[in-house]
Design a protein that fits this description.
The chain has 424 residues and is α+β, with helices and mostly antiparallel strands. 25% of the residues lie in helices and 17% in strands. The chain is built from ten helices and 15 strands. Strands 4, 6, 10, 11, 12, 13 and 14 form a seven-stranded mixed β-sheet that branches. It has a three-stranded antiparallel β-sheet with strand order 2-1-3, with no helix packed on it. Helix 7 packs across helix 8.
Length: 424
């Protein structure tokens, strides 16, 4: 069978990118919409197997007779309405268009036992093989890795089952991190974040006379570049800094130019992949050198190939960078106004194991409030969320992005919001 890239929807719910197998199955005819990502809009596709982890699980392998026998009953006793107090329509009461008692904390969790969420060894084995096909760069394939994958897969399936029922506002999915424990993931893809001395920064304060729009996306304005990949190196701070510099330069010059993270990493004294950094260190390095090169001239090769040898060439400088940057005050209201008025923001966040498996939706996690360990950039916002640009490639999250719950200091996002205009 030919494997193609596609996006599918079931009913009105769009699912993320998947691996689908080219086949036909009349059971799903008319229920699934397919958007091919390879440009072939004429291919006839239906789902035989997906990586949605629970989309067709549960009752799909049962006959209607088996399902009705196991999950319904004929023993419900009729109510004696003659003995029940009536509730009659009150026409003077104005009703709202929608109501959800779950959001008011008056509804308990779904009983998972009723769901019969069973995942067979065969299913996990098949999913693991699809995982290896999808991410051939993964190494150390062995029984231990498969067992870690199986544990994470079960967690993802259970979470998505609950998300479908409104318990969570985001979904999880298999990605290149799924065969890693949370400890391994955090050690390889997050880092220690040195404190930024905000006392020395110029403040950006909320201007109450400015009206900001309900939503904003700097990507649609051509001021944000494509998603990049930091690899297994704690270099997120360099990527987040460069993201801000690229956007500021695009706003000033009118066109986007990809800049070099590797220059910052190689030329920052004492830095290695295991040691963290921040925007303050990055700007000082670029100012000391005299500017920043384009990514095409000084490409990213970090991770295992990192040698910490500064190879900056002044003749290839595309922009000069100063050391001035601005601390955004007044919490997330100030952050929203700053994103609207000045462009993308550099922020630090806490990343946990649920963040590791994020696939789509608005990420809200009450346990995402520990020590800051990752740097990202805010490139926009919408009703109730921040639009976050990450540096883990496009296979993670929503094509490399995450929508993070807003006005809750989710994942401690409002601790160190800064931006710089000091690039020319």
């Amino acid at each position: 069978m030919e494997i193609v890239q596609a996006t599918i929807s079931i009913g009105h719910q769009w699912l993320p990118e998947h691996q689908l197998r080219n086949n036909t199955d009349s059971r799903y005819s008319g229920k699934i919409t397919v958007k091919l990502l390879n440009g072939n809009t004429e291919a006839k596709l239906a789902v035989v197997h997906t990586l949605y982890y629970g989309c067709f699980r549960g009752f799909t392998d049962m006959t209607s007779r088996e399902f009705l026998a196991k999950y319904t009953t004929t023993s419900l006793m009729p109510l004696d309405f003659q003995k029940v107090r009536p509730s009659q329509l009150n026409v003077s009461v104005s009703l709202t268009d929608t109501v959800d008692w779950r959001s008011l904390g008056k509804v308990g969790p779904i009983n998972k036992n009723q769901a019969n969420l069973q995942i067979s060894k065969q299913e996990i084995s098949l999913q693991y093989q699809l995982f290896l096909e999808t991410y051939p760069q993964r190494q150390h394939v062995n029984k231990y890795r498969e067992s870690v994958f199986a544990e994470n897969y079960r967690k993802i399936a259970e979470h998505n089952w609950e998300a479908e029922r409104g318990i969570y506002t985001y979904t999880m999915g298999v990605n290149a991190f799924t065969d890693m424990t949370s400890k391994e993931f955090l050690e390889k893809f997050t880092t220690k974040m040195p404190t930024i001395d905000i006392q020395k920064l110029r403040p950006f304060q909320l201007n109450v006379s400015v009206t900001v729009p309900d939503s904003l996306d700097w990507r649609s304005l051509g001021k944000v570049g494509p998603i990049k990949n930091q690899g297994q190196c704690g270099s997120c701070w360099a990527f987040a800094t460069v993201a801000i510099l690229e956007s500021r330069l695009a706003i000033k010059r009118g066109s986007y130019r990809s800049l070099s993270e590797q220059e910052i990493i190689d030329c920052t004294d004492g830095y290695t992949c295991a040691v963290g950094g921040n925007i303050q260190m990055a700007l000082k390095t670029l100012n000391r050198l005299g500017g920043i090169e384009a990514d095409s001239d000084y490409p990213y090769i970090s991770g295992d190939k990192h040698k910490n040898q500064c190879a900056y060439q002044s003749v290839k400088t595309v922009a000069q960078v100063g050391t001035s940057y601005i601390n955004v005050q007044d919490g997330e209201s100030g952050m929203q106004q700053s994103v609207y008025m000045n462009g993308p923001l550099y922020v630090h966040v806490h990343v946990n194991e649920n963040f590791q498996h994020y696939r789509s939706g608005v990420f809200s996690d009450q346990n995402c409030d520990q020590q800051i360990n990752h740097a990202v950039s805010i490139v926009g916002y919408g009703p109730g969320y921040w639009l976050i640009r990450n540096s883990w490639d496009t296979w993670w999250g929503e094509q490399g992005y995450i929508r993070l719950a807003r006005d809750q200091n989710m994942c401690r996002i409002s601790v160190y919001p800064v931006w710089t205009d000091d690039i020319n």
